[in-house]
Amino acid sequence: MSRTSVNQDEPAVLLIDGRCLLCNRITIFVAKRDKAKAFRFAMLQSSVGIRLLINGKLSTHDYDTFVMVQDGRYYTKSDAALRVLRRLGGWWRLMYLFIALPRAWRNVVYDFVANNRYKWFGQTDVCMLPSPELIARFIEDGVQVEGTGELPDEK
User: Fold this and answer.
1) Using one digit for the tens of pLDDT, what is the confidence trace for 88-119?
2) Is it the case that residue 73 has pLDDT exceeding 50?
């Protein structure tokens, strides 16, 4: 479920698995390198995350995917990961060259890591203790970020 354009002016929202230690590390990695504050974050399991998944017609029960939402478009798996690296700029931008590989090939590698992430990196039921700066970049209920579209009401 990927599209082609990315508006570099609006913040993108990264939906991450809140139980996954690898995903938590990726969030910290992105936030530290995101000098332009081009990303906001939400957990897939949160009410905001679930509403964004519903809005994007994505599964609300499968947390094996990394999702980037920008300008009303939803990017998943390797498409999302490569777009994040491109937006970080610098040398990370070069990783975007892998977008030229067929999505099916890229997602085989992505799925292999996603399916083993708990075994390799662990999982937690305890929320990470992010810095105040990182906390400010998480989306909470009632906060709308441009480009994510209107959130449907909870049923």
Assistant:
1) 989 999 999 999 999 999 999 999 999 998 89
2) yes
Domain boundaries, the chain: 12-135
3-state secondary structure the chain: CCCCCCCCCCCEEEEECCCEHHHHHHHHHHHHHCCCCCEEEEECCCHHHHHHHHHCCCCCCCCCCCEEEECCEEEEHHHHHHHHHHHHCHHHHHHHHHHHCCHHHHHHHHHHHHHHHHHHHCECCCCCCCCHHHHCCECCCCCCCCCCCCCCCCC
